[in-house]
Amino acid sequence: MERSHIVAVTSVLAALGAILPIVAAFYLSWSVATSREETRLSRLAEYAIMRTNTAFGEATSALKSADQFSFTPCSQQHIAAMRALVVNTRSVEDIGYFEGDALKCSSWGKPETSVGRGQVDFTTASGIGVSARVHPTISNGRAMLGFRYRSYSVLTDPARLVDVLATPDTRLAIASDTGTLVSELNNPDASLIKRLIEHTQTGTDADNLFATATGSGWIAIATSSRALLLKDLGRERLLLLPLGAIVAALMVGLVFWLSRRRLSPLGELSIAVQRREFIVHYQPLIEMKTGICVGAEALVRWRRPDGSLVRPDTFIPLAEESGLIQAITDQVIGGVIKDLGPVLVADRSLHIAINLSADDIKSGRVLPVIQAALANSGVLTEQIWLEATERGFMDVKSARATIEEARRLGHSVAIDDFGTGYSSLQYIQDLPLDALKIDKSFIDTVGLVSATSAVTPHIIDIAKSLNLYIVAEGIERQEQADYLLARGVQYGQGWLYSKALPAPEFIAFYNDSKRVHGAGPTVIRRDIPEVPPAVGGD
């Protein structure tokens, strides 16, 4: 072989050795970037579907509740009832009563001018008519989303459907499965949206990356610019050198991993924990026989820096799966003492219930945390009630050890949402509990003919046989309260009495209750020979 030929072959192999790793790194960086962006868009679309289903469900519930009204149309009682629906339904901005196509009254009162009902763009499978663009007077010309059912229509801000965390370069659209566009964010490409409505898919084209999600008659489409992705990728490629291709590829992967972590729900939740963005609202607990407010259940709320609140059902499951729930529980404990410490010290008959996760019940690690929070606060251990769902008691041996230690320290312990989880009667018999809380799903069936309506009296009988205090959750109608009181249920909570309140509003509610009904009884607690009796009102 001639020297020049050897040099040529060696040069080619050297070039290939230098070029191939770089090409592989470029290809890998593009593949990873595209995959991660598609994943982010998919999650954004799925979250938007969840928000849409929530808003539509709340609007449907409001319509069907209004349809049950027996008031004289447009009487003061009727208008007040519609106003209460609007106030208590987050996704509803206004509700109106129509006769034919003419608006007779709304939650604002009777219209001063004639207002027509307009046409529906489509009707859902549940019989709800939807108008994609309604321009009512109250919105100052801004288009609203209208839902109608029989004689009633409600208005919803379409922005609620796309109220998600998204960069300005991310575009989002919500449409019905019939192709009607109902909400959008950041002006998505109309032609692309139309094509994706007709053929839902996740992928890329010459200009865009896109992802779709479907559910309950809705389609969510999230898109971002391919050019912007290429621009970002180009900056990263400048860091790649032939001798550092592998290191540079790892750095690109790390950058995208960190970006994904920051934009993902878990990443947001982790940052919220670090920034201590969780606050506590308090659901009053009422002694049903007397109407006395004896305490409250501490309910965690995630308040973003902009002041908006994230629904607990959107982050609690993720917190439990990721293990962040323990840090959130610790923040709740600190919040309770900070918010209500002086009130608890001033009135020993008041108690606050704190929800524990399954891991806390299994490990018992939360008990020293509570004791440390109570130290030097003046709050008695007996004034802190602990609650856990049935899932927390699956490991009966560990749960029993934790409960016994908690009660030795002075806490009362309740099983929450009874009947919806995993515990059997044998579990309950084996655990030294103080109280049993009947889940709202069973209370909802009171007065109705349903498959679960007969379960509630059995749960009450079980609690009585085990000498447990009984708490009914989610009481919304006087009929439910009367039924439960007649069957010996001692305590109740729900919107019939009050929604969950921020600390200042709960304190005002409690003081009002005390003025009207008098001081509360002693802290709820079954007698235990080895534990001193609970402290009563000073």
From TrEMBL:
GO terms for cellular component: plasma membrane. One of its GO terms (molecular function) is cyclic-guanylate-specific phosphodiesterase activity. The chain crosses the membrane at residues 6-30, 238-258. Keywords: c-di-GMP, Cell membrane, Hydrolase, Membrane, Transmembrane, Transmembrane helix. SUPFAM superfamilies: EAL domain-like. CDD domains: EAL (cd01948). The keyword DNA damage does not apply. It is a multi-pass membrane protein. It holds the Pfam family CSS-motif. It is an enzyme of class 3 (hydrolase). It catalyses: 3',3'-c-di-GMP + H2O = 5'-phosphoguanylyl(3'->5')guanosine + H(+). Residues 262-514 form the EAL domain. Its main location: membrane. Its EC number is 3.1.4.52. Coiled coil: none annotated. It is found in: Cell membrane. This is cyclic-guanylate-specific phosphodiesterase.
